[in-house]
């Protein structure tokens, strides 16, 4: 919902989710290799290469030959991409700040207390090996849910 709300105010053409993920990653990690980006995003190398080609064509990514291995490419966000990602992050921060500020104090405190656990969950997802992915939904027990409040 947050993404949908933010997209309404976009002036530039929309990017697909995977394109945005790659741009964010390269903006945060300049000089990243395509293979490292593929690993970080859990995508096949040829899929990332396709995304790179699309973003280079839109002047959002710059690809340079790695001087240490001329077969590899290093990725850099262009100033246009850095500005776009920066604007997106600022708007997202502002919107979330407004929404959180409107919550009653007990809910704000609950969110703050949950942040360390949410960060650990996100890290766990990042480091989860592909073969450890969850089974198909039909293989899950029928009554698997979060505990209910008393």
Structure description:
It contains 6 helices and 3 strands; from the N terminus they run ααβααββαα. By secondary structure, the chain is mostly helical. A 3-stranded antiparallel sheet has the order 1-3-2. Strand 2 and strand 3 form a beta hairpin. Helix 2 crosses helix 4 and helix 3 crosses helix 4.
Write the layout of secondary structure elements.
Blueprint: H1 2-7, H2 17-28, E1 32-33, H3 34-41, H4 45-57, E2 61-66, E3 69-77, H5 79-101, H6 105-127
Antiparallel strand pairs: 1-3, 2-3
Helix pairs in contact: 2-4, 3-4
Query: What percentage of residues falls in helices of 4 or more residues?
Result: 55-70%
Report, as a whole number of angstroms, the end-to-end distance.
29 Å
Main sheet?
3 strands, antiparallel
Give the strand order of the largest sheet, numbering strands 1, 2, ... along the chain.
1-3-2
Radius of gyration: 19 Å
H-E order: HHEHHEEHH
Q: Say how many strands there are.
A: 3
Please report the number of helical segments: 6
The structural class is mainly alpha
Low-confidence stretches: none
Gross morphology is globular
Mean pLDDT: 84
Strand content: 5-15%
